[in-house]
Amino acid sequence: MKHIVEISKQALTQMLLNGFEAFVIKHGDKKRSGIEFHASLYGDIKILDKGKKYRHVIEFISVDTSAEMNSGSVSFSIEASDLKEDIAEQMGFYQLGKMHSHPYLAHEMSVDEVRKQGFDFSPGDLEAISDAIDRYEEGLGYHLEVLLTITEMKQKNTSLDGRKESNLFEFSVGNCKCFLHAQVFSKSDDKLHWDDTELRCSFLEQNGHLEANFGLIKAKKGRKRVLEYKPNN
Ligand SMILES: [Zn+2]
């Protein structure tokens, strides 16, 4: 089955606002910056070509505030997911899937390493996705997961920004490099499958990177694991 995943400008904005807040700002008693965030995706779904093609239109996201957000992993509550799904449906929106972020501070992984291996789903992600599909009747379930990877770089470099693959964009936000990756998974014979997924986002297709006035995100003096944002004056 083929899946088209469309991300509206509003949903992309929410992904960036929440993704960067989790990336830069130190949360509570966490010792470092760069925690993963988890959110649910909402919008509309259209079934095309007699069920051969699904078009998922992500109109907005809702951060899963009960998810346990750490620097190397994030786990969400099924109860919260069910609750939010039912409320959203009352308002006319479907819960389309989930998203989370992978944050990398400059000393943890270079952007070249991220390009090689970093914007993909981790073994832990795949396990959670497989469990999510198991909640559906056999053969009927699938799962849409969006992954936002944010990498700190010493300085801005937009040269490789643009579409990378049918389901992957690379773009810059100031001196940080982002990768937005969408993938639909299904299962058969207890094995996870990567279904044909196309990511569409007209904002990213028209603007390789955010041109807005943006300051610098960098490690605080003497603390390589804690970031700070210095706006331009
Ligand atoms: Zn992950």
Short synopsis of the structure:
The protein is built from five helices and 13 strands. It has helices at 9-24, 78-90, 111-118, 123-133, 202-206; strands at residues 2-7, 38-48, 53-63, 68-69, 74-75, 94-104, 142-152, 162-165, 168-173, 176-188, 191-200, 216-220, 223-230.
Q: What ligand molecules are bound, each kind once?
A: zinc ion
Strand content: 35-45%
> Rg, please?
18 Å
Return the average pLDDT rounded to an integer. 90
Largest sheet: 7 strands, mixed, barrel
Strand order of the largest sheet: 1-3-2-6-7-10-11
CATH homologous superfamily heading: Cytidine Deaminase, domain 2
Structural class computed from helices and strand pairing = alpha+beta
Low-confidence stretches: none
Span from first to last CA?
50 Å
How many helical elements? 5
Based on Cα principal axes, name the global outline. Answer: globular
**How many β-strand runs?**
13
The arrangement of helices and strands along the chain is EHEEEEHEHHEEEEEHEE
What is the annotated CATH architecture? 3-Layer(aba) Sandwich
The figure for the number of domains is 1
CATH topology: Cytidine Deaminase, domain 2
Q: What top-tier CATH class fits best?
A: Alpha Beta
State the share of residues found in helices, binned by percent. 10-25%
